[in-house]
Amino acid sequence: MSLHQRAIVQILLAISLLLNHYEVEAEQRLSKAKDLELEKQLKLLNKPAIKTIKGKYGELYDCVDFYKQPAFHHPLLKNHNFHPQMKPMLSMLQGDDISSNNNKPFNIELEGGGCPVGTVPIRRITKDDLIRRRLTKQMRGGDDSPDGNGIVSDGTKPLGGGYKFASVQIPYSPRNKIAGAGAIISLHNPQNLSGHQHSGGRIKVQNGIDSIQVGWTVNPPVYGDTHTRLYTYFTAGKLACYNTRCPGFIQINTAIPLDGQLPGSSYGGPVFDVPMYIARDMSNGNWWFYFGITAVGFWPAKIFTNLKGFATSAEYGGVVYSPPGIPEPPMGSGYFPVGDLKKDAHCKKCTFLTDKNQTKSLDNILVKLYANSQNLYRVTDYPNSGVVTGNLVSYGGPGEH
Asked: Which residues form the Neprosin PEP catalytic domain (predicted)?
């Protein structure tokens, strides 16, 4: 190699090293800027706590002043008359309509009786939560099942996107006036979920672009773990949100947190189950969430467009999500239904609430079975199945694992 060529090589090497140095500096500055942005978001999201309670899995719940909870950041809730002592004006919660007869009792309440009066438990958001949220911002919360009229709840994208369902539906009809839906839901912990998958069981009401769902979920993309948790999810137009992670749901109960840990049933027993109910307050249109016989909180009517009125469809069953190219995860117990309550994921005593504030069994209305991947997941409806189980929906499947 000539001296001239050697000099050129040395110059190019020096330029390369210099560029690498500047790239590293730029990445460090960008990383620092992102870190500062995350810290800024955390300060906005996490409100000053009067008390902090540690959950079973190490997560922290801050007891936040009722009036400073995330819901009141919603622009439509700036001027409100809500207060911590609010109770729904509902009459459907009577006797056996939602009694559980649990196979095995459990307690979801926070230690020490929960938060002080005038405060509500809000799960503290961490930096890792925000990072996962950015990575999965294109994912929705399993809200994309059709409402019976082929409409998905975000009003825009077609069915698909990795979601699979196995559920019994009260299909869409413009004549439907559904004021609530409920069932005794068995709880499960499907295994072998990857970081971008989730699996759960739910009850859902919907009217076009607006929907509300409640149930249990195993959701690593949201929680960063594979524990079974209580969850709620709503869509209001383009707004879609889990639990209290964006403005919408107003927490009332001081001891039962959304995101709370739940036990998972074992195949063959023991079985854990709990009544869950979504119900519209006829006096003001607010939609309440009941866990057992306890009112946890509500979604105000004013944040919705279509659900200012009644729902036009309802759904009971399971949902899973997996990104394209990743094997589908298990649903429910991880097995197809076999007609055995100790083995099947199920919803017992499936009911809906009429516009007359009357609780009716699914036996009293036309329903349809919906499973969009029947080789992986199945659903069965057992109408008139007895006093203990009422209308019974069983669902589940192994997925591709």
From this structure: 158-401
The verdict on residue 190 lying in a domain is yes
**Residue 319 pairs with which residues in a beta bridge?**
165, 200
Q: How far apart are CA 160 and CA 210, in angstroms?
A: 19
The number of residues making up the chain comes to 401
Indicate the angle between helix axes 127-135 and 3-45, nearest 10 degrees.
Answer: 110
131 confidence band (pLDDT: 50, 70, 90): confident
- Tell whether 153 is covered by a domain: no
228-270 confidence digits (pLDDT tens): 999 999 999 889 988 988 899 999 999 999 999 999 999 999 9
- Mean pLDDT along residues 44-59: 88
Q: Which helix (H) or strand (E) holds 370?
A: strand 368-371
In a domain, 34, yes or no: no
Asked if 292 and 187 touch (Cβ cutoff 8 Å), the reply is: no
What's the number of domains the chain is made of? 1
d(CA 85, CA 112): 20
pTM: 0.86
Asked whether residue 33 is assigned to any structural domain, the reply reads no
- Report helix, strand or coil for 300: coil
Token duo for residue 51: 């008390």
Angle at 209 between CA 208 and CA 213, to 5 degrees: 90
Whole-number pLDDT of residue 37: 82
Which phi and psi angles does 169 have, rounded to 5°?
-120, 145
Give the integer Cα–Cα distance in Å for 199 and 220. Answer: 10
- For residue 218, the tally of other CB atoms under 10 A from its CB is 25
- DSSP lists the bridge partners of residue 122 as 62
